[in-house]
Amino acid sequence: MTKTKKLTINDIATKANVSTATVSRYLNGQLNQMSATTASKLKKIIKETAYIRNSAAVQLAKQKSNLVAVVASNIDEYFSSEYFKGVVSILSAQGYIGVLFDSNSDEITESNLLESVYNQNFAGLILQPLSTQHHLIDKFTNNHIPVVLIDRDIGNGDISTVTTNNFQVTKFAMESFLGKGFKKVTIITEPVNRISTRVERIAGVRSVFNHAQLIEVDTDHLNLSELSDDLDIKNPTHLLFVLKERLLIQLLANTDLLHEPKTQQRLTGFIDTNIPKYLAPTYKFIQQSPYLMGATAAELLMTQFSEQQPTDIKQIVIPSHFE
Amino acid sequence: MTKTKKLTINDIATKANVSTATVSRYLNGQLNQMSATTASKLKKIIKETAYIRNSAAVQLAKQKSNLVAVVASNIDEYFSSEYFKGVVSILSAQGYIGVLFDSNSDEITESNLLESVYNQNFAGLILQPLSTQHHLIDKFTNNHIPVVLIDRDIGNGDISTVTTNNFQVTKFAMESFLGKGFKKVTIITEPVNRISTRVERIAGVRSVFNHAQLIEVDTDHLNLSELSDDLDIKNPTHLLFVLKERLLIQLLANTDLLHEPKTQQRLTGFIDTNIPKYLAPTYKFIQQSPYLMGATAAELLMTQFSEQQPTDIKQIVIPSHFE
DNA sequence: TTGTAAGCGTTATCAT
DNA sequence: ATGATAACGCTTACAA
Hints:
2 copies of one chain form a homodimer.
Chain A: H1 9-16, H2 20-27, H3 36-49, H4 55-62, E1 67-72, H5 78-93, E2 97-102, H6 107-118, E3 124-127, H7 135-142, E4 147-150, E5 160-164, H8 166-179, E6 184-189, H9 196-206, E7 213-216, H10 224-231, E8 238-242, H11 245-252, H12 255-259, E9 267-271, H13 275-279, E10 286-287, H14 290-306, E11 315-318, E12 321-322
Parallel strand pairs in A: 1-2, 1-3, 3-4, 4-5, 5-11, 6-7, 6-8, 8-9, 9-10
Antiparallel strand pairs in A: 10-12
The structure holds a DNA duplex.
């Protein structure tokens, strides 16, 4: 309950009988620029007084912020929180702080959020884009704020991107089902819009089953009975391919669908958690590596911090697995 | 592609032929302290130049940060991301930024995180505590950094807290099952330790079924067959009460358990998402209101910001519902 | 190895 | 209604 008045670097300097410059050097790890005795004296005093720097002052003097904005398209998805953890793991090791924002699957919200993020002096931006509008991002890049896109591409070669092999892994899975005798595929997804991940996955399906039909639904208002005609459950050579885990779980929960044929998997898709595995332990699904994707995006961002020239743009693909 | 050199308040002042003081007043909304013409001139110039304040300088001058740390016990839980959204909804309306940290269900991590958060000059802390150690928090309160606990209590009356009615709602649910003829209850949970939510829920069960047995398991390594003796499925008057959604889903996925009796619900617990509802549409579960809890915690924090005296400590309970 | 002092961009007090 | 200017706490040449 010691009443603590805010300590400054000056107080420390006085106590140690050195100048503020020396204290500052110590705080910034320039130990080679001072005697061992000075260093240990400072170490002791700083520990005793529990002094901490005023980070606003540090940032003002150093002319750089240590805040990185991470704008997720929808935090409710486990995918988002998982790649956020990957981002943070890299950032915090370098003294940066990751700040999570949620576009909530809404382009208007995303636009407002980016505007507000821009106004808050962040050092960098990691964005899982909803809109394909380049100009939302231009503001950042024009002002030399590094940007990395994650999960989705917006067809702008000027920006570093971390995605997964949506097309390839889907194609691979489809070939496996083709080999098992499946003749027909129905893709179930939220509205495709121009979301690159969805477009690529659909292309992956159609590269094998070129007449695969597409059903767009709304996760929150899914009505299974309405769909039942399209689902065509009785046909044992008909595969359902679901692009979103929540949707997949709802279908898996329909035990008729899950257990009638018993012998053959007739339902698969992209998953984020192991909940689908609880429901169907023998099934194979497509799993991404969101944590790794986040960590990679953060690393890409860090390299851009250390560069003078805003070059070195990279497009990295983190593979997903069908298993 | 305009090459933008960082604009300062000085540049704006020069362009407008006024002093920096006037610009600063404008930026801070003191419009009554200047002529309408000056104000509109500034408005125009600021818009044209897309000038934004350097927030480090603002914070240094105003002597306050706009960052609030939100330390969740485990981001993987939907509960956490949901209350975080509630927190952010309130904070951002007041110009504060919520920063999410993850203790990852580990007390050591929590302790390190709090230390690091403390060193980063946050304006406030919203904590879902893992440890019941008061001293981790004392550092903050001693330095007049407001703290609000969420979800869990650590038995410290000096700190504002937002929790739910764990005991009451559990008791209510149990009475309902008692009325339906259940004779025996088994509680399935992760290790209780001293986590207040778990303790209270168990007490709620035992206030009705005083001999309810307790099974502590590890979510990640749940082995259903090992448990089967304890689960005692064949007994139609035996209720399973599960404290954690992920665990509940695993049990619900066991279709024998779910569908054998068909007529009567034999499994319930606390849920965070509507996935259990997909799996068992007719079942009743206990649902919390994490978003509201987060928003409430943030409001509590804000009141502490505006106070001089660190009094006005409140313990708020947001009820959960069995339905 | 250490010190001096001029910034960093904004706010807020005191004048006018 | 507006301006001049001293803080705010730290970093970093430049000196010594």
